[in-house]
Design goal:
The chain has 281 residues and is mainly β. Helix content is 7%, strand content 46%. It contains two helices and 18 strands. The protein has helices at residues 175-180, 227-240; strands at residues 2-9, 17-24, 32-39, 45-51, 62-63, 68-73, 79-80, 82-85, 88-91, 100-108, 111-119, 125-132, 145-152, 160-168, 187-193, 201-205, 217-225, 263-277. The strands form four sheets. Strands 3, 4, 5, 8, 9, 14, 15, 17 and 18 form a nine-stranded mixed β-sheet that branches. A four-stranded antiparallel β-sheet has the order 7-6-10-11, with no helix packed on it. The N and C termini lie far apart (60 Å).
């Protein structure tokens, strides 16, 4: 099936033009999507399994039931996850340990899908520091704040991070909110690697989508991940623009750590958590 895609080109010069590209897009076969996580926290191993839909006729993904899902550490034996329904599988029989590699296996009918992920050593946040923003929007009638995370990056290896942020209460759109401009995001995530600050005390801004305001509560998870998962999230963000994950199998999907053509990811994560509440000075 052919579609005409219009791409605006204005990167090199200030003027732009329109280029017509004739692209052959695959409507997309159904593909299995496996999303699995093991962490060093007191929480169960969790795996969700679905199937994609046609890219040009997107529907809600189909839950995969009746699969056999198992996990093991590098020197252990496989533990079978319990099916909870609606494509969700879980076990509390195994907990992630830092510095170990974990293996996930999914059997769906005659098909077998396997992945592995290394659970890094935990990196701790030193502090979360907020300060008034000097970049004032003329429409903003309330004082906004910048939030910075300070941490010391280990020097002995390359480190990859995924900062997960949750702001509460969730933004409420009312007249006051509209007058002051867009609030910070209710939930967001930020990818980071240590290529520019390996082994040093570092600071990193956490205003992913806007300023924070008095009485905002921000929960921050500093999640250490391995390189394949970092690259997967990075490609996924580039493809989707940070939007919905998998509902279809075309036109492009990020490279992942699963065998046999499965979409999704298996991530082993070391998590440090902190909370800050914005208070008046």
């Amino acid at each position: 099936m052919k579609y005409l895609i219009y791409i605006s080109l204005g990167i090199i010069s200030l003027s732009s033009c329109t280029k017509i590209i004739d692209v052959e897009l695959n409507e997309g076969l159904q593909r299995i999507v496996i999303e699995g996580r093991i962490t060093d926290q007191d929480e169960p191993v969790s795996v969700y399994i679905t199937r994609t839909t046609d890219y040009f006729n997107p529907l809600d993904p189909e839950n995969v039931t009746g699969a056999t899902v198992s996990i093991k550490a590098e020197s252990g034996v496989f533990v079978t996850l319990t099916e909870l329904g609606e494509g969700h599988y879980e076990t509390s029989m195994i907990k992630g340990e830092n510095g170990k590699r974990y293996y996930l296996r999914v059997e769906d009918g005659e098909e077998v899908y396997e992945a592995s992920s290394y659970l890094p050593k935990k990196v701790f946040m030193d502090s979360l520091v907020y300060a008034p923003s000097f970049f004032v929007n003329p429409q903003d009638t309330l004082l906004g704040f910048l939030l910075t995370c300070w941490f010391t990056d280990p020097a002995e290896q390359t480190n990859y991070y995924n900062f997960a942020l949750k702001r509460t209460p969730e933004p409420i759109v009312d007249e006051e909110e509209e007058r002051r401009g867009p609030p910070s995001s209710g939930n967001s995530a930020i990818l980071l690697n240590d290529i520019n600050f390996n082994g040093r005390l570092s600071s990193f801004n956490l205003n992913r989508l806007g300023l924070y305001y008095i009485n905002d509560t921000i929960d921050v998870q500093m999640i250490s991940i391995d390189q394949p998962i970092y690259e997967y999230y990075d490609q996924l963000a580039a493809i989707t623009g940070g939007g919905i994950m998998f509902s279809s199998s075309a036109p492009a999907n990020p490279m992942n750590n699963f065998s046999n053509g499965a979409l999704g990811y298996f991530s082993a994560e070391a998590i440090d958590k902190k909370r800050v509440i914005i208070r008046p000075f």
